[in-house]
Design brief:
Helices cover about 20% and strands about 30% of the residues. By secondary structure, it is an alpha+beta fold. Strands 1, 2, 3, 4, 5, 6, 7, 8, 9, 10, 11 and 12 form a twelve-stranded antiparallel β-sheet that branches. Strand 4 and strand 5 form a beta hairpin. Helix 1 runs antiparallel to helix 5. The radius of gyration is 20 Å and the shape is globular.
């Protein structure tokens, strides 16, 4: 390991700060849709957006999450191990508190804290973040986990996951699905694939700022933990989410305007390399009625992002507010 690469115990115990603001334009929403494949109407249709309670189309929630990681990479590089050849992001959680509209200006307030290392392999550094708009309202918050070697020559922990069986989900034409129709293991399927390319990695890195050495510097990456440039984990999640959402939208859902995207959390098990083909397997994990909102419930869907060898590189949970039949 290079002498300049800090071990976990040598990393700063506590850092905090705030990144520069950035305004969300209509072109940013369109660009993100093109980069990820999430062409949902609520993000791209101005006329439909005018009929919504906000009076406008809204930005993808994942724009704010992706910009959070990108701004940290640019202005707080220790939080993501931007120039650390042995560091890697192992997980992230993003909670969506309020919609982001075209014209909103976002900045990231963050606090990094070194966590206690367990064992002799890698130790975690957690960064909590808030994305604030121009009114100082939190629109997104969450945390990310960076793993650092606890000693020279530390080996990566084995976090492999068994892939779920490949299933085909064929929604019943004309049927509207309510919360009561979902049970653990139901609505399971597999998406089409998407090969991850140089254009994906460079385009996303330029758009978000998430373009550190592991993703953008071939010589740095070759000497690092993974031996070659890798796809940004957040980009892999964004693309896998969009592939799943495309399948999800084939299903009839209640036209109540109340369904909402509440939270995403993902864990990385292995990298996606440039040239890998990503597919997403999905299934229902849980469904329960809301304790605070009558007629609504919480629906949690599990996602597995697999490569062409059927290895699970990333696993995730998506939590949504979803109408009940009595709603």
């Amino acid at each position: 390991m290079p002498k300049t690469a800090l071990l976990h115990a040598d990393y700063p115990a506590l850092l905090e700060g705030e990144t520069s603001p950035r305004t969300v334009g209509g072109q940013d929403i369109t660009t993100f849709a093109c980069l990820t494949g999430d062409y949902n109407r609520i993000h791209l249709d101005e006329h439909y957006g005018a009929s919504l309670p906000y009076g406008s189309r809204i930005a993808h929630g994942l724009i704010s999450g992706s910009w959070a990681l990108g701004s940290l990479s640019q202005e707080a590089p220790l939080t993501v191990g931007r120039r650390h050849p042995e560091a890697y992001l192992s997980g992230c959680e993003v909670n969506y508190r309020s919609p982001v509209l075209p014209g909103d200006t976002l900045r990231c307030r963050w606090r990094m804290e070194r966590q206690a290392a367990e064992g002799r392999g890698f130790g975690p550094v957690q960064t909590r973040f808030q994305m604030l708009n121009q009114r100082d309202e939190p629109v997104t918050d969450g945390h990310l986990l960076l793993q650092l070697p606890a000693s020279s020559g530390a080996r990566l922990p084995d976090s492999a996951r068994v892939p779920w069986p490949a299933e085909e989900f064929d929604p019943v034409p004309g049927r509207v699905y309510f919360l009561e129709d979902f049970q653990p293991g139901s609505h399971a399927g597999q998406t089409e694939g998407r090969t991850l390319t140089e254009a994906d990695v460079v385009g996303y890195g330029g758009f978000t700022g998430d373009n550190g050495g592991h993703h953008g510097d071939a010589e740095f990456a070759r000497a690092g933990r993974f031996g070659a440039r890798i796809v940004q984990p957040m980009l892999a999640f964004d693309i896998g989410f969009a592939l799943w959402l495309k399948e999800w939208c084939r299903m009839g859902t209640p036209d109540s305007g109340q369904a909402g995207h509440l939270c995403d959390r993902w864990q990385a098990h292995a990298p996606f390399y440039l040239g890998d083909t990503l597919r997403c397997r999905y299934r229902t994990l849980s469904a329960r009625t809301s304790r605070t909102r009558p007629g609504m419930g919480l629906l949690t869907c599990g996602l597995q992002m697999l490569n062409q060898r059927d290895a699970v590189a990333l696993s995730a949970e998506v939590v949504m507010m979803y109408p009940t039949r009595q709603g």
